[in-house]
Amino acid sequence: MKTRYPDSKSQRSLRLYCMVFFCALVFLLAGCYGMRRSKGGGQTKPITQRQIVPTDINVMEGYGVEAVMQGLTFPTACDFDDRNRLYVIEAGYSYGEVWTEPKLIRINDDGSQSVIATGSKNGPWTGLAYHEGHFYVTEGGQMEGGKLLRVDTTGKIKILVENLPSFGDHHTNGPAIKDGYIYFGQGAATNSAVVGQDNASYGWLKRKPQFHDIPCQDIELVGQNYESPDSSGNRSKVVTGAYMPFGTASKPGQVVKGSVPCTGAVMRIPLQGGKPELVAWGLRNPYGLRFREDGKLFVTDNGYDERGSRPVWGAGDIFWEIKTGAWYGYPDFSGSQLLEGDIEFKAPGKSAPKSLLKKHPNQPPKPAAILGVHSSSNGFDFDNGRFFMKGEAFIAQFGDMAPSVGKTLSPVGFKIVRANPETGVIRDFAVNKGKKTAPASYLKSGGMERPVSVKFDRSGQQLYVVDFGILTMDQKNPKPKTGTGVIWKISKK
Amino acid sequence: MKKITYIIWASALLLATSCASRRSEPVKGRSFNANRSEVVHGEQLFMIHCQKCHPGGEGGLGIAINSNPAPGFVKRLQMRHGLGVMPAFSKKELSRSDLKDISSYMRAWKHY
């Protein structure tokens, strides 16, 4: 027995060392979040030229990638006419306050380009849908407010609706057409319903100092207010409440009258134009809108950022099925989770977000899928079963804009994912080759930069990816690069 | 002591050289088939609770976890109690069997 004592002691020591080692390892891997610097996909040195190398993109086995068009400036969407000819829109505006001319461009059979229509300085044009001989365009409306435009094949533009509340952080998006109606999304004015210093950085607060979020129905406020520096740049402080202009406080029990058009909502108008009707509200930035074959409407909704007076941490982008009349939780929920009291949404070193509404219109529905925090999951299209998997949504992820939206430890997004709305399972479909999932400029390769939307052609067998182009980030602002947009085509070999 | 030092160094080397965090169908060039019920269930729970910060187990808002060599019980301990900025998941949110299913999925995903 005596001879076993040294063994037992050594075994105990070994066990102890192993435990200490694994605990240290876990701590090492979890690290100290606060000490780590942000490593977003745009946090690279500005690049002057872009390489286009389709083989730098990994897709599923049996599929191939080619670049069908390059040199575009801020392309955001594409669609096909009855003859399956490709049309692309250039936004005419990018975050970073860069203005160009919005355009609708046709790609001819010989590869040449024809400009069909040009817009005014009221971008960004965010979405395009072809329907029965006309193009329907959502105009973001940074200067004059959001609009829905109808463009005929000769380039003549008719305004179907205007003065949509689109002067803020997010724009008028969509469109999707069904049963004689155009459905569109209207993004929220702010990050989380409180106008703050971050909106001055975006550039719009100086242009529209009275602009703020507008609820679609009457809401009663808790009276939560936030102190922030004055936007004029002097040292004074101002106090701002939810759904109030910058510098206006709210009171407990204060009722804010709802009206349509509103922010953070899906609305619709008749095809020939008319007054907007509410479809669903309580969204943050419903960017992509599509009807599935069974007639159900789905949207991608960009989640909260860690910025401004009421930062929210860890809020993923949401893929929703839209139910008419429902409220989807903005500004007090992320998905179906209440922000208040949930440590998951408290930004490290900052105050936890408190509820702004005294009473919530309904418990938000369950998300169809939850996508990466800051992934900027935007335009999408459904596979009709002729491409990969029937009913799955192929979603373009523009990618993070860290550090201005918050810190990320690795680039997020910059790829095409497929989401199953029934199970909520998300898998990658197209990603750049390299050590990380990141934009080509980060990886110094010739792959995708910032995919902003996707569209199947008329056959349903080819997926077109609209790549916005290079957009890098400095500490505060985006630095978009004109002439770097690309259209990629993914098809079965 | 020598033996222990070797084990620690070998593990550290393994950590440094193995397990690239990228685990993605297009990177692998083939589909991931979740063919056991616990893996299917674990994947769905992962998508609800983990995916947004660790997309596909890669880094994002949070760290990459595909390359985390810690044993399953340590990971489950971390999920239950949280660590650093990672939130804890209560028994109401994720039962013990849910945590095991997530572990099964993560293991299957790591080795596919």
Tell me about this structure.
The complex is a heterodimer of chains A (493) and B (112). Chain A has 493 residues and is mostly beta strands. Chain A folds into two domains: 2-31; 34-492, Neuraminidase (6 Propeller). Helix content of chain A is 8%, strand content 36%. Chain A contains four helices and 35 strands. Chain A has helices at 5-30, 197-202, 204-207, 440-443; strands at 57-59, 63-72, 75-80, 86-90, 93-94, 98-99, 103-107, 113-118, 125-131, 134-139, 146-151, 157-164, 172-178, 181-186, 219-220, 225-229, 237-241, 255-256, 265-270, 277-281, 286-291, 297-301, 316-321, 333-334, 337-338, 369-373, 377-382, 393-397, 415-419, 426-432, 451-456, 462-467, 471-473, 478-480, 485-492. In chain A, the strands form eleven sheets. Chain A has a five-stranded antiparallel β-sheet, with no helix packed on it. In chain A, strands 2-35-32-31 form a four-stranded antiparallel β-sheet, with no helix packed on it. In chain A, a hairpin with a 2-residue loop joins β9 (125-131) and β10 (134-139). The radius of gyration of chain A is 24 Å and the shape is globular. The model of chain A is unreliable at 1-6 (pLDDT under 50). Chain B has 112 residues and is mostly helical. Chain B has one domain: Orthogonal Bundle (Cytochrome Bc1 Complex, Chain D, domain 2). Chain B has five helices and no strands. Chain B has helices at 2-17, 25-28, 37-49, 72-81, 96-111. In chain B, α3 packs across α5. The radius of gyration of chain B is 15 Å and the shape is globular. The termini of chain B are far apart. The model of chain B has no long low-confidence stretch (mean pLDDT 88). Chains A and B meet through α1, β26 and β30 of A and α1, α2 and α3 of B.
**In CATH, what is the homologous superfamily of the largest domain in chain A?**
TolB, C-terminal domain
Helix and strand content put the structural class of chain A at: mainly beta
The name of the CATH topology of chain B is: Cytochrome Bc1 Complex, Chain D, domain 2
- Helix-strand pattern of chain B, N to C? HHHHH
Might you state the CATH topology name of the largest domain in chain A?
A: Neuraminidase
CATH architecture annotation of the largest domain in chain A: 6 Propeller
- Which residue ranges of chain B are poorly predicted, with pLDDT under 50 across at least 5 consecutive positions? none
